[in-house]
Design brief:
Layout (H helix, E strand, L loop, with lengths): L4 E5 L6 H12 L2 E4 H9 L3 H8 L1 H17 L4 E4 L10 H7 L3 E7 L2 H10 L13 H19 L4 E4 L5 H12 L1
Helix pairs in contact: 1-8, 2-4, 3-4, 6-7
This protein binds shikimate-3-phosphate.
C-alpha cells in the first residue's frame, strides 16, 4: 500500500460513508466522515448549520476542517461531503498532496434518486423539493455541474450493482 490517506468523494447517497467505514476497518486505519466531524466540531447537525448560518458558512467550515484533517499525519480513510470537492480550489489542493489517493464513487442517477428520496428531510439541498420528478431533475443538473470536479479524482469506481465488500475490494486493488 503506497498511500497513507484515502479520500472518497461523490454525490450524496453514493455510499461514501458506508464504503469508507468498511474500507478503513479492513485496512486497520481510522475512518473519518467529514460531515460527522463538522457536526461534532460545530455542535450542530448539517441541517441546523445550513438553517442558522447558511450554505456559504457551511462551505467555509467544510474547507477549514478538511485542511485540518489533511494536515494530520496519520493514515486515514476520509469521506467528503458531496459538495466538498466543488468549492474553492479544494480539488486542486487535494490533488497537490502526496501520499493521498482519491476515489470518485460514481453512482447511477436512478439509484441516487431512490436513496435520496428516503432521506430527503435530512438533506438541506433537496429538502424543499416537492416530488420525485423535482428531485430527479435537481440531481441530474447538479451532477452535470459537479462532474468536472469529481472526474479529477485519481480513480473512478462505478458502484452500480456492487456490494460494499466488492467496492472495498475494487478500491484495494487500485491501491496495491
Ligand atoms: C452536500 C452533501 C452532504 C452534506 C451537505 C451538502 C452536498 O454530504 O455535506 O448536506 O452539497 O452535496 P454527503 O454527500 O455526505 O451526504
Amino acid at each position: 500500500m503506497d498511500s497513507s490517506k484515502i479520500i472518497l468523494l461523490g454525490y450524496m447517497g453514493s455510499g461514501k460513508s458506508i464504503v469508507g467505514n468498511q474500507l478503513a476497518k479492513t485496512l486497520s486505519i481510522k475512518f473519518i466522515d467529514l460531515d460527522r466531524y463538522i457536526e461534532r466540531a460545530e455542535g450542530h447537525n448539517i441541517t441546523e448549520i445550513f438553517e442558522s448560518k447558511g450554505e456559504l458558512y457551511f462551505r467555509a467550515q467544510e474547507r477549514k476542517y478538511l485542511k485540518v484533517l489533511l494536515k494530520d499525519s496519520l493514515p486515514m480513510v476520509l469521506s467528503l461531503g458531496g459538495g466538498t470537492p466543488c468549492y474553492y480550489d479544494t480539488m486542486e489542493y487535494i490533488q497537490s498532496l502526496e501520499n493521498l489517493t482519491s476515489f470518485y464513487l460514481n453512482t447511477d442517477i436512478n439509484t441516487l434518486v431512490l436513496r435520496l428520496l428516503k432521506e430527503k428531510a435530512t438533506r438541506p439541498l433537496i429538502a424543499h423539493l416537492e416530488n420525485e420528478d423535482a428531485v430527479k431533475e435537481f440531481i441530474g443538473k447538479h451532477l452535470f455541474e459537479r462532474n468536472r470536479f469529481y472526474q479529477q479524482a485519481h480513480h473512478q469506481i462505478s458502484t452500480d450493482q456492487k456490494s460494499v465488500e466488492t467496492l472495498v475490494k475494487d478500491i484495494k486493488k487500485k491501491l496495491s
